[in-house]
């Protein structure tokens, strides 16, 4: 189902447009002015300069955003006054738009503290997107892999179009029979207008839940096992297989693409190894680990492996002495007395005292760091330049 072999599901696009699984993420941020000043200093207070055109429409007299205000990147977030030096304005720095939901004034444990700490709660509305995670109440997880048009979805004889098509290959291994029973129970409850008692252990081997709900489905004119004949939404032809269809409670999980996607073209590098830094919050690179390396080796993609681990990582051009093989001895000549001769400076090997034996090689920068570490332990590394 969808573009994945396992744990993927297709969602009816019309249901999605009607608000299927729409949710909001709440984020709270505590702002404490007492952390910005010295002990016993009361020079910082929340507020704004009167008549400031930048923030008079965005913040109230206390320097806080209005309840229900929509914030975008770069909007005034809050403002506080330094009674000694002047105003300090903070801007909203998140890339995701939000709505101010609540603002609370915090104090110390005794309640005698001054107006120094606030808590701003923001609401971020989110529609389900490709890659978001869902699950039933039986551990049957599913990833939204495709929003399918309602006119192309399969439909029943009565014209009903399902909201979710999930992959059946998760049932044999997980053995979540409760989800199948829930589907039959929900379907029979909808047909008869009942509210079933879901107390555990009320059924026995003589009177099983399958037979109980199956008989209710049969009494309503449906198949005993909860299956129906569906028709293709594209061709209108009846599908050959009996398809299990019913009512199941699905919930949206907190694992969302908006919180986890990561991409990097260029950015900061580590000062020691000269490799891209890691971490999504600092726009770091995605780690290309040992297993990823082994996968490329197994496929024989040597040029791709060279590109990932060398060109896109810490490629550097180093000077090496061809005669003695030293990577550390080639150094720039002493600065000449005239600025015009600066560009003509050459690398000179301090061991051989020659400049015609210097050549350039492309090596990982971490290798140069490793050679310097070995030299600190009195271990010499000699390179053979071909």
From TrEMBL:
One of its GO terms (cellular component) is nucleus. InterPro entries: DNA-dir_RNA_pol_su2, DNA-dir_RNAP_su2_dom, DNA-dir_RNAP_su2_hyb_sf, RNA_pol_bsu_CS, RNA_pol_Rpb2_7. It is found in: Nucleus. Pfam families: RNA_pol_Rpb2_6, RNA_pol_Rpb2_7. Its main location: nucleus. Residues 1-281 form the DNA-directed RNA polymerase subunit 2 hybrid-binding domain. Keywords: DNA-directed RNA polymerase, Metal-binding, Nucleotidyltransferase, Nucleus, Transcription, Transferase, Zinc, Zinc-finger. Coiled coil: none annotated. It comes from the Eukaryota. Its EC number is 2.7.7.6. It is an enzyme of class 2 (transferase). The keyword Zinc applies. GO terms for biological process: DNA-templated transcription. GO terms for molecular function: DNA binding; DNA-directed RNA polymerase activity; ribonucleoside binding; zinc ion binding. Residues 284-384 form the RNA polymerase Rpb2 domain. The keyword Zinc-finger applies. Belongs to the RNA polymerase beta chain family. This is DNA-directed RNA polymerase.
């Amino acid at each position: 189902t969808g573009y994945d072999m396992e744990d993927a599901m297709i969602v009816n696009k019309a249901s999605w447009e009607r608000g299927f699984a729409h949710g909001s993420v709440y984020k709270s941020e505590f702002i404490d002015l007492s952390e910005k000043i010295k002990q016993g200093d009361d020079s910082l207070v929340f507020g704004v300069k009167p008549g400031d055109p930048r923030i008079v429409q965005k913040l109230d007299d206390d320097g806080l955003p209005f309840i229900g205000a929509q914030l975008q990147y770069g909007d005034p977030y809050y403002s506080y006054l330094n009674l000694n030096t002047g105003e300090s304005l903070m801007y909203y720095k998140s890339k995701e738009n939000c709505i101010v939901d609540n603002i609370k004034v915090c104090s110390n444990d005794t309640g005698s503290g001054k107006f120094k700490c606030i808590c701003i709660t923001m609401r971020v509305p989110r529609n389900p997107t490709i890659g978001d995670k869902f699950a039933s109440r039986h551990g049957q997880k599913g990833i939204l892999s495709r929003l399918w048009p309602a006119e192309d979805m399969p439909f029943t004889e009565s014209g009903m179009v399902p909201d979710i098509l999930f992959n059946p290959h998760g049932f044999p291994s997980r053995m979540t029979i409760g989800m199948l029973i829930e589907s039959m129970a929900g379907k029979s409850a909808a047909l008869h207008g009942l509210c079933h008692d879901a107390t555990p252990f009320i059924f026995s081997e003589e009177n099983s839940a399958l037979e109980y709900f199956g008989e209710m489905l049969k009494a309503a004119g449906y198949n005993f096992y909860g299956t129906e004949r569906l028709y293709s939404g594209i061709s209108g032809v009846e599908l050959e297989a009996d398809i299990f269809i019913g009512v199941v409670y699905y919930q949206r999980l907190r694992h969302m693409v908006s919180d986890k996607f990561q991409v990097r073209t260029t950015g900061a590098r580590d000062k020691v190894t000269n490799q891209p830094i890691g971490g999504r919050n600092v726009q770091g690179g995605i780690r290309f680990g040992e297993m990823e390396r082994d996968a490329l080796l197994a496929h024989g993609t040597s040029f791709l492996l060279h590109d990932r681990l060398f060109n896109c990582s810490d490629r550097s051009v180093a000077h090496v002495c061809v005669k003695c093989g030293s990577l550390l001895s080639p150094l720039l000549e002493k600065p000449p007395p005239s600025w015009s001769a600066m560009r003509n400076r050459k690398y000179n090997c301090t061991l051989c005292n020659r400049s015609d034996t210097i050549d350039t090689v492309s090596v990982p920068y971490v290798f140069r760091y490793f050679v310097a570490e070995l030299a600190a332990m009195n271990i010499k590394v000699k390179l053979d330049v071909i």
